[in-house]
Amino acid sequence: MSMSSIERRIADLTREMAAAAAAEDFELAGRLRDEIAVLKGQSLGAEPAVEVRQPPPGQMGLGTHIPVAAPPKGWRPPAKPDPMTRGKSGGTRRR
Predict the structure, then answer these.
(1) Do the Cβ atoms of 41 and 53 come closer than 8 Å?
(2) With the CA atoms of 33, 36, 40 and 42 taken in that order, what torsion angle do they form, in degrees rounded to the nearest 10?
(3) Residues 25 and 75: beta-carbon distance below 8 Å
(4) How far is Cα 7 from Cα 83, in angstroms, rounded to an integer?
(5) Among residues 40, 35, 30, 38, which one has the least CA distance to residue 13?
(6) Domain ranges, ordered by start, for the chain
(7) Taking the model in full, what pTM does it have?
(8) Binning pLDDT at 50, 70 and 90, where does residue 50 land?
(9) pLDDT of 71
(10) What does the pLDDT look like over 57-90, one tens digit per residue?
């Protein structure tokens, strides 16, 4: 699924959700709201929003048009540990 088809699907579901709410079919409107949230990459319930969007089923792997999550601005990978000091405790030297 490309980004434009996902956006079209979200627009269609939003219209369906508004029609269901106007017809007082709140169960259908809630299911549509949840489906829209999944397509937008938002989490459901009281959990915080997910930063990395899950691709739609069947669209994993190379060649998809799903954006890749970038690290936060200013993030640098941590320094690699020194293999000579691995497993050693800090502190003073013994003589």
Answers:
(1) yes
(2) 30
(3) no
(4) 49
(5) 35
(6) 1-69
(7) 0.46
(8) very low
(9) 77
(10) 665 555 556 566 777 888 888 888 777 776 666 6
Residue closest to 38 by CA, chosen among 4, 66, 10, 71: 10
Cβ-Cβ contacts under 8 Å for 41 (sequence gap 6 or more):
50, 52, 53, 54
Rounded Cα distance between 89 and 3, Å, is 51
Structure token digits, residue 40: 């937008």
| Helices and strands: H and E segment counts in the chain | 2, 0
For residues 12 and 50, the model is more confident at 12
Are 24 and 12 in contact, with CB atoms under 8 Å apart? no
Three-state DSSP at 95 gives: coil
Of all helices (H) and strands (E), which one includes residue 40? helix 26-40
pLDDT of residue 44: 61
- What is the pLDDT averaged over residues 21-29? 92
The total number of residues written for the chain in this structure: 95
66-to-7, 23, 62 alpha-carbon distances in Å: 12, 35, 9
